[in-house]
Amino acid sequence: MDVSELDATIHAGHAGMEESPYGIPSGKLAMWCFVLSDAVTFSAVLFAYGYLRIGSPDWSTPFTFVPSVLNGLVMTFVLLTSGLTMLAAVEAAKAGRTAAGTRWLWATCALGALFAGMHLMEWRHMIEEGWRLFQNPLGGSVEFGAAFFCITGLHLLHVLGGVCALAVIALGFHRQRYNSIDVEVLGIYWHFVDLVWMFVFPLVYLMNAR
Amino acid sequence: MSVQGAALGPGMKFFVAVWIALMCIVGVEVIVTYQHLPPRQLLVWLLLLAFLEAGVAAWYFMHLKYERAALTWSLLPALVFVVFMMDHIWPDAFRLASLRLLSH
């Protein structure tokens, strides 16, 4: 079903189908519902971390400005910029500019992959320093490692999934297999990944800055 | 209003301005971090700024502003309710709130 048929179905009360109460395609509503449930998941994890952080008198604060906080800032810049390129892709797709939309999708994919690469490099740096899931080389609370790797790992998993989805949608959009609505639905997911990082960076990195 | 028309918003120049605003909020977060505040106070400030940043991103980047109000009113109260329940109503939250450790 292409965009114009979907439009007619949603707003014209096509026989056998009800008008959408939100005026959006079902795929978009489904993505919003998924984003809501995923937000609750991250909220639970971050709440638990918050209580652990505040309630532990020997919680470590290992992140110096250079390299950890600075690296986190660069990662934030990369992810926020990827949000902007995703917006450009959605705008181009809605305007019917397939080539531009595809280019912006690939740009978003590249920035997401860069973010993931930087994150893995940070993990390698932490592991080389002796940090593990339940090991603290500074001698403080061993739950720091579990909190750090689990929270950032869950977010990284979402980023990697998003990068794969971006590649699939970019290829499909270029071949006109997917339309602007598909791009927009993916955009909602990618902005959500960005939104989660807006909580992860201050709560995990800045709260543990030395 | 068409499907595409319902979600149309301003052009890219506006979104670049929003992007700059988001980077500024991140900058404020870093500045606040190095003011040597007590952990609880720092947590409150960072959470406030994070919620502001997330709200701006959801409103503009996720195009929530340009959708029907019914969508916002369906999603946000549900999220706020669940998060509130998670933090304040579960019996375990009372123990955690006073930071008593589990007895073994």
How are the secondary structure elements laid out?
The complex is a heterodimer of chains A (210) and B (104).
Chain A: H1 3-12, H2 26-55, H3 65-94, H4 98-128, H5 143-174, H6 180-205
Chain B: H1 3-6, H2 12-33, H3 39-61, H4 69-89, H5 91-97
Please characterize this protein's 3D structure:
- The complex is a heterodimer of chains A (210) and B (104).
- Chain A has 210 residues and is mainly alpha-helical.
- Chain A has one domain (25-208): Up-down Bundle (Four Helix Bundle (Hemerythrin (Met), subunit A)).
- Chain A has six helices and no strands.
- Chain A has helices spanning 3-12, 26-55, 65-94, 98-128, 143-174, 180-205.
- In chain A, helix 2 (26-55) runs antiparallel to helix 5 (143-174) and helix 3 (65-94) packs antiparallel against helix 4.
- The radius of gyration of chain A is 20 Å and the shape is elongated.
- The model of chain A has no long low-confidence stretch (mean pLDDT 90).
- Chain B is mainly alpha-helical and 104 residues long.
- Chain B has two domains: 1-67; 68-104.
- Helix content of chain B is 74%, strand content 0%.
- Chain B is built from five helices and no strands.
- The longest helix of chain B is centred in the middle third of the chain and has 23 residues, at 39-61.
- At the A-B interface, helix 1, helix 2, helix 3 and helix 6 of A face helix 1, helix 2, helix 3 and helix 4 of B.
